[in-house]
Design a protein that fits this description.
Mean pLDDT: 83
Number of helices: 3
Oligomer: single chain
Radius of gyration: 17 Å
Distance between the termini: 46 Å
Largest sheet: 7 strands, mixed
Strand order of the largest sheet: 2-3-11-8-7-1-4
C-alpha cells in the first residue's frame, strides 16, 4: 500500500496562470446517479478522471446570481481529518418548480454539485457523501426578495478530500443535461 502521508512532489506555479474567482455555471445531480464502479479517481482521490453517471441520469442547471459560491473546509479530528463541502446559491426566481426542488432537498434528497470555473475547469462537490440542504432563507423584503439556499456535507459524514477536480467538458455537460433549451439563458445569468 502507498504511504498517503508523504509528499511526492512540491507545489508548483503554472506558467501564465492567474487565479480567477467565481463560477461561470453550476449544475446539480442526484447523488445516487453516480456510477462509482465505473468512475475513476486519481491523484490521491482529489481528481475524477472518468465521471460516469448511471443510465438515464441527468444533470440540472442552476440559475442563480454571481454571488453563488462553493467551498470546502478541513475538519481536524482525533481519528482522521476530513472535509465538509458547502454550496450556496441565490435563486432569482421562486416559482412552483423551484419550490418543488427545494422540497425534494428537505425530504432527504442528496445531491452533488458540478461547477464550471472562469478558467474553464470543472469541479465536483459531494462525490463521496452527497450534500443535503442546510438552510432555505427567503424574504419578500430582504435581499431583493431572492432565495438563499445552502447545502452541505451531511452531519457525521465526511468527504476524504476537498472539492474534486473534474475531467469533463462541454460535450459531457450537453450529453447529460435534462433540458437543453435553457443553456443560453443560463450562461447569460452568470456572465
Amino acid at each position: 500500500m502507498i504511504d498517503q502521508s508523504k509528499f511526492t512532489v512540491g507545489f508548483r506555479k503554472k506558467c501564465n496562470y492567474k487565479s480567477k474567482i467565481g463560477v461561470i455555471r453550476k449544475w446539480y445531480l442526484n447523488y445516487n446517479d453516480i456510477d462509482k464502479i465505473n468512475s475513476k479517481l486519481t491523484h490521491k482521490l482529489t481528481c475524477v478522471e472518468e465521471f460516469v453517471l448511471k443510465e438515464d441520469a441527468n444533470i440540472y442547471p442552476i440559475y442563480a446570481t454571481k454571488k453563488a459560491s462553493s467551498n470546502h473546509s478541513l475538519v481536524p479530528n482525533d481519528a482522521a481529518n476530513y472535509y465538509r463541502h458547502f454550496d450556496t446559491l441565490i435563486l432569482l426566481y421562486r416559482g412552483p418548480s423551484e419550490r418543488e426542488r427545494i422540497q425534494e432537498l428537505i425530504n432527504d434528497g442528496r445531491i452533488c454539485v458540478i461547477i464550471e470555473r472562469f478558467d474553464n475547469t470543472f469541479e465536483l462537490l459531494g462525490y463521496h457523501s452527497g450534500m443535503v440542504i442546510n438552510s432555505d432563507d427567503y424574504s419578500t423584503h430582504d435581499n431583493e426578495a431572492t432565495t438563499t439556499v445552502n447545502i452541505t456535507t451531511p452531519d457525521n459524514e465526511e468527504e476524504p478530500t476537498g472539492i474534486k477536480l473534474l475531467n469533463i467538458n462541454q460535450t459531457w455537460i450537453n450529453k447529460h443535461l435534462s433540458i437543453h433549451e435553457f443553456t443560453n439563458e443560463f450562461t447569460k445569468e452568470f456572465t
